[in-house]
Amino acid sequence: MKNGFFRLVVGCLTVSFLIAAPSLWAAEKKTMTRQDDFVIIMGSKAKTNIGKPIANMSLFALHNGQAKPIPFQIDEKSPNGDWVLTTAPSSIKGLKPETDEDNGRLDANDQVACMIKDSGDRMDKNLYPQGALAVDEITLTDPLTGGKAWVYLCSFASNPPLSNVSYIKYNTAKDQVETSNYIMGFPAKMPIAPGFISINGSPNLIDRMKIRVVAHILGIPYHINENQFVSKLSLYKAGPIRVIRRTKNAIKIFKIFQTPSAAVENIYYGNIASIPIRMTVPLNVAGVAKMFALSVEATGGADFQNMQNWQFKSNVYPHWVTINNSMDQAEKAMNGKGPLDWFCIKGPNKAFMIRITLDRKDDGTPQVLPLTTKLYYVDDAQALDPPEDIPGQTPNVGYIIDGISKLNKGTMYFFATLYLIKDYNDGDEKTYLTIIDKPIRVDSL
Ligand SMILES: [Ca+2]
Ligand SMILES: [Ca+2]
Ligand SMILES: [Ca+2]
């Protein structure tokens, strides 16, 4: 009797352990607290789905015990690493949409994009979406806190279940991207740079983006400004997570000579605009510089408007100064300080942050360039800075880049990232800086 009771208890314990084990596994909850990052999963990480048609895929996350499709998109890159852009703007004739060489199948260099806020708990296999033929479990880890979350890339026979949520819209008629955080429009004359930025309902904050270069050759100064850019809109790819938009750009020098045109793809998310630039320096500038006594100083940034009484801070002087059409002692002192990593301008319920990254390649590996950055800051409506559309600098903020004449031959990477922040609270820039500094780790089996 006693023995029988004992056996019964042990039996029950074993049975309840067997039942508990899978549910304990499934109960591995999301501990990731990051909200603002986008996540890029390389095709190479989706080993079960690789080679399958992208049109049959969907991305899932587990919320409240249920697997649900989340917003995502898959963007292809060609074997040589160029974006495959599938749509031509209706305003432009003669552009041929592109296809990847595998004709729409997932391969190693294609990218699955989603937002970290949509990730979920870990999913037990018995909760995998019905009809899924292949599932890749992707683990996302915050390297700062160890917080974890999961998403699941799934292939179906056809008609994959999709989320109907979208974070961004590309209005091709206006050449404008629209999100709940911001609207950014591009002038037909110079579609590479925004001429209109509204954050969280603000009026247009941009006079124009400015690029000013002064080169001295044998002591003679040459000036280049953004009016000498010849920029043309090209193909794009739009999805619920991001818009990849290509322009083709050349620079006119001395009104007669035009550089070869280079394709630039800017990537717009719901809260971030990413401007990666890959430049190939065709010759050893340092050698030429010595021969021709060449020195080059470039300033790139934005001349703003409609920012009266907004506040400004940057890593070179991390205290708020006020934009009020006058340069106080602190503003004068910080102007010209470096190295400049980021600056942030805040207004009521919103902020605009810009960061330039020169110290890494597009895959995140370190890059060493002889370039230095300094803050350019002028808050003065009387100080004209032509060519401009709104006279005066209210404020005009940017990066002074030095050392261009020391560049060596080769390929270099240069990223500008714009953060368009809705409901900004003082100190939020820290969480936006971690997006690049401590990127979310993406792992798969
Ligand atoms: Ca590819
Ligand atoms: Ca492909
Ligand atoms: Ca101006």
Structure, explained:
The protein folds into two domains: 38-155, no CATH class; 169-444, Distorted Sandwich (Beta-galactosidase, Chain A, domain 5). Helices cover 11% and strands 41% of the residues. It has helices at 2-26, 285-292, 329-334, 429-437; strands at 38-42, 57-63, 66-69, 73-75, 111-115, 134-141, 148-155, 169-171, 176-178, 182-185, 196-199, 206-217, 220-225, 229-238, 243-253, 257-258, 262-268, 272-281, 295-304, 311-314, 317-322, 342-347, 350-357, 372-380, 393-402, 410-422, 441-444. Strands 14, 15, 16, 17, 18, 20, 21, 22, 23 and 26 form a ten-stranded antiparallel sheet that branches. Strands 3-2-7-6-27 form a five-stranded antiparallel sheet, with no helix packed on it. It has a five-stranded antiparallel sheet with strand order 13-12-19-25-24. It starts with a helix and ends with a strand. 32% of the residues are buried. Residues 1-6 and 8-24 have low confidence and may be disordered. Bound molecules: calcium ion (3 copies).
